[in-house]
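Case study 2.
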Amino acid sequence: MQGSRPRGATVRAFVVAGFISIPWGVSSAAGITREKLLVGGIEREYLVSAAKSDRPRPTVLVLHGSLLNGDVMVPVMGFEPLVEREGLVVIYPNAVAGEWNDGSAESVQWGAGSYDDAGFLRALVAHLVRTSFSDRARVYVTGYSNGGVMAFRLTCETDGIFAAAAAIAATLPFELARSCRPPRPMPMLIMNGTADPLVPFDGGKLPLSGSQALSTEATISFLRKVNGCTQAVKLDELPRADPNDASRVTVANWTTCSSRAPVVLYRIEGGGHRVPSLAPGVPLVESLVGRLNHDFDAAEAIWSFFKNKRSTGHRAQR
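Prediction:
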């Protein structure tokens, strides 16, 4: 498949190099274990970071971006400080080829189309629930970039497994938007930068693959329609924690929804293809994927959104 990859491979390789040049990894995070699960004849790998407890715990699946992996997402997503404090299980699954089969034309181009990643993630949740590791009513999914689109796909295809979902630097691809028939509304949070060079905020052609994606506005409209939300929106601007990062954040909340499943957008003016963090950024990464906003911490905001949500479906076991 390597020879068939599109011309964006070179640029993507530089982006990944920027991420993996960060001197962090799973070895620096105490208590993280590497586990494997056989699904569909393929041994799938995932990392586990868990609070000490004999009871099932709230669980967050964190899905990596293209050509990344769970090891990279441990420091990038910033959930580790929350694990013991909030009594969480955080799972970092790995895609087979570094790319999730997220239902887009891009994932097919990059060789992920033959893998049943939705089936793997459903089986993983079932395993975690069956072994009393995870609280079946409090399983959540979040993802960055390709992982964010995979989170969208899971909301389209899974019934009652996840209590809420969050996507960072991601919008709905045209192909997924056409086929998406969510079995039930799900609380959704999106964090997108208006200056994202890889997933344009206003939608259209993705520069590294040529495939098409909806705008952030159209993605939000789609989710609002699914969740039965009115146009009434509450807008809040976050305080400027770092006036030097040339970005600011407006939070839009649609909470008047017949399903009681809200839709929330963190609109990051001037933000790039980044995971917002209070930590300093890496100049190499900024030159490739845009500015990092320092006004809030993505993991804290995502968990604040997740923590009071419960799934009523309880269909994690098959």
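The CA atoms of residues 40 and 133 lie 22 Å apart.
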